[in-house]
Amino acid sequence: MIRKYVNIILAVVLFSFQVIGAGTRVRVNQLGYLPEAAKQAILISESDITVKDFTIHDALTNEVCGQFNTVSHWGEFDKFNSNYTLDFSVFKQTGAFYIKTGDTYSPIFFINKHHFAHTTDQLLTYLRSRRIGNNVSGGWWYDASNKNRNASVNASVTYQLLFAYSNYPDIFIDAYDLQGERKPNGIPDVLDEANWGLEWLSKIQYESTPVAINGKLVAALALGAQVCKSFDTAFADRLANKAEQIYRYAEEQEVVEDLFEIIEGLQEENWRDDMQLAATQLYFLTYNKQYLKDAVTYGTSEPVPPWLFTACDPALRFYPYVNWSPYLLLQIENPQIKKDYLHNIMVSLQRARLIAQDNPFNIGVNFSENSNNKIIALHNMCLIYRQLTNDHQFVDLEESLFNWIFGCNPWGISMVTGMPDTGTTPSHPHIKSYIETDQIPVGAVVSGAVNNTCLKDSEIDGLSFDGPYERHQTEWAVYHDHVNDHVTNQPNIDASAGLIQLLAARASSVERDYLFNYNHYDLGGINRFNPDQKQILITFTAHQYDDGFRKIASALKKHNVKAAFFFSGDFLRKSKAKRQIKKLKSQGHYIGPAGNHYFQLTDWDKSLKSDLNKTVFLNDLKENYAALKKHGISKQQAPFFNPPFELYDDNISFWCKEVGIHIIRSTPGTDSNLDYTFPEMREHYYSSRDILNKIMQVEDKSGLNGYILQFNYGTNPARKDKLYKHLENLLMDLKREGYEFVDIFKAVKLR
Ligand SMILES: [Ca+2]
Ligand SMILES: [Ca+2]
Fold first, then answer.
1. How far apart are CA 305 and CA 393, in angstroms?
2. What is the pLDDT, as a whole number, of residue 8?
3. Could you report the per-residue pLDDT of 562-576, keeping only the tens digit for each?
4. Of 441, 439, 523, which is closest to residue 125 (Cα–Cα)?
5. What is the CATH number of domain 15-111?
6. CB neighbour list of residue 110: distance below 8 Å, 6 or more residues apart
7. Lower CB density within 10 Å: C or N end of the chain?
8. What values do phi and psi take at 110, rounded to 5?
9. How far does the centroid of ligand 1 lie from the alpha carbon of residue 196, in Å?
10. Dihedral (C-alpha) 367, 369, 373, 376: value to the nearest 10 degrees?
11. 3-state class of 721 per DSSP?
12. Residue 518: what pLDDT?
């Protein structure tokens, strides 16, 4: 017994005396981790420190959710004297969390696969916002700071969209049409966007276009023909003919250009990679053996991506950053070709791993221009390799590259504007819309960090920058969130297109049913769910009164309805609440928070109460969760919050989102929640008959699909005509009309 006691004291002493020095930061992937994935955070410190363990806490309640000693010391790196990897792969809870070690805290991060469900839509929205011209004469996507046409980048973006779709056809939604209008057209939006690219690319004067671009045109058009076949045969045929026509021209062209090697003014110096992909896509389109032969011949000159073997290559010297041909050829039934390409891919990824071993962030690229494009490209190479071979040896590299993009980097910044909306993201990007109007579009990937040596003599060399990120610059990697830095902080569409593939892979782990968010939102709170389903969610709220308990519980039981109950902290602390909540829990109902003291959060005009701020609000909510905990209900089980009087604003929704909570309220229009009124309120009084009639009127007129009907759990004794006495009949009537009553998780599909 004594020994055990001593051990406990030692453990406490060790933990509390763990000294964390100045300039210590824990970097995480702020967008989030998949529950089943490998999960790592990186600790960097300018001081010489020892880290042995860390804890993971719920972002709102601060409760310890896990304690870990899975810490590995990386050693010194550049100006950071201490670097550690904190591994929490075994932690699979879902929600919003932070890491704490000593007195250092990480930013908040999320673990939840559904977090990835709609990220590709956001990136497509960004691309849509880059459209210019029209698709009759040929519209294109422009990049960050000028509206020039760039056929090379447009072809690569188009190809990447088509490639992402062909790998993950099920995850893309249909909310927009070809013109980019918000109108579903039966075609996944990623293909509408690809179509925008294909229209222009198919009209380009290829006779006056360099071979490197013509190769890209062929690859995009041929893949477009393959993918679009099932949507529009005529369009697909047109693309296929054009692809072969350009290919025949480009084949002749290469012989001439080979003598000159690099055309004046063209930044890109490799073209056989483009012709290899062109030939490969034509082979998969036509199964003409000559194309396969061509692909193999072109491939011999560039077996691996050159940028993995160079230090300071200019942005587009080796473009595009991934040549998918080797990965596609891995799939054909020819043992020699298979083996050759497998070797080449392994050489590329092993080279990347060697680079990654030299830095604590495990990043396998050299920091030359457009490093984020390369990081995303390498990630996608690891991913596709793993999927094709089932060899998982590069999965750590894959996750580290993904983590870097979303904040696991020296600066702790996500490299994508506005993603996640709760995170630290570029706030001064070098992009025209921000420079001219202060607007930052969501989903723009900035070009990324560059090695200090490569920056020498660049246009930003010699400019002085200040701000919180400067402390984290190293010789290895320099990044400025500054509008004047067009080298590291200028978004580019190529990287955003590549990121679609990355996020599509994560989104594909989400069940199809959950991919499409049909919820309706008001000020960031859910006020209706899928209107295409004949389903209703029944909710109750309680603070002061509980007289409805018996009737409500029995009506719900009788009709086997799983409802959602929102209780204030004051209610939960009452002694009689215990028995009621036990019963409701045993019947399978959801029980969640309604505000600790049920204080009004905003005025009726939705302006925030003057004494309310984020800390006050979150502390109040925390107290409500503490009261729920006493009834054995954790925050994890209760992520939906129904604000007092259903009053809230955008700020409150955002604060909730940051700590992993969703606001939900009733669907306006049925007056169901007016059952608290009593006759003394005169013209503001609503009898049960009034309310029930109104509900059935709405049903009759437009249906109640996806409606959230909210009632009061108890009401003022002055109201004698209690609506809950009619609940059983109401449920029966609605059932008779064909409605299904669903529980809150099934209704809003956010978990
Ligand atoms: Ca569409
Ligand atoms: Ca090229």
1. 20
2. 39
3. 999 999 999 999 999
4. 441
5. 2.60.40.10
6. 31, 32, 33, 95, 96, 97, 420, 660
7. N
8. -115, 145
9. 12
10. 0
11. coil
12. 85
Structure tokens at 149: 């046409």
Ligand nearest, relative to CA of residue 320: 2
Structure tokens at 523: 């000020």
Please report, as a single letter, which amino acid is at residue 737. Answer: E
Domain regions of the chain by residue span: 15-111, 115-513, 518-748
> For position 750, what pLDDT does the model report?
77
Ligand 2 centroid from CA 193, angstroms: 23
Integer Cα distance of 71 and 66 in angstroms: 14
581 conformational bin, left if phi > 0, alpha if psi -120 to 50, beta if neither? alpha
The dotted CATH code for 518-748 is 3.20.20.370
Distance, CA of 284 to CA of 689 (rounded, Å): 67
Ligand 1 mean position to 600 CA, how many Å?
42
CA 191–ligand 2 middle distance (angstroms): 24
pLDDT tens-place string over residues 432-490:
889 999 999 999 999 999 999 999 978 788 788 888 899 999 999 999 999 999 999 99
Distance 227 CA to ligand 1 centre (A): 15
Q: What residue type is assigned to position 44 of the chain?
A: I
CA of 419 to the centre of ligand 2 (A): 30
- Ligand at minimal distance from the CA of 193 is 1
User: For the purposes of burial, counting CB atoms within 10 Å of the CB of 568, is it exposed (0-12), middle (13-18) or buried (19 or more)?
Assistant: buried
- When the candidates are 3.40.50.150, 1.10.10.10, 1.50.10.10, 1.20.210.10, the CATH number that belongs to 115-513 is 1.50.10.10
Rounded to the nearest angstrom, the distance between the alpha carbon of 319 and the centre of ligand 2 is 4
pLDDT of the residue at 457: 79
User: What are the residue ranges in the chain where pLDDT is below 70?
Assistant: 1-21, 254-266, 512-515, 751
The CA 308 to ligand 2 mean position distance, Å, reads 14
How far, in whole angstroms, is CA 112 from its chain's centroid? Answer: 10
The pLDDT, as a whole number, for residue 11 is 38
For ion ligand 2, residues whose CB falls within 5 Å: 212, 270, 273-274
What separation in Å is there between the alpha carbon of 176 and the centre of ligand 1?
4
* CA 317 to ligand 2 center in whole angstroms: 8
What is the rounded distance in angstroms from the CA atom of residue 543 to the CA atom of residue 574?
A: 10
Q: Is 518-748 in the same CATH topology as 15-111? A: no
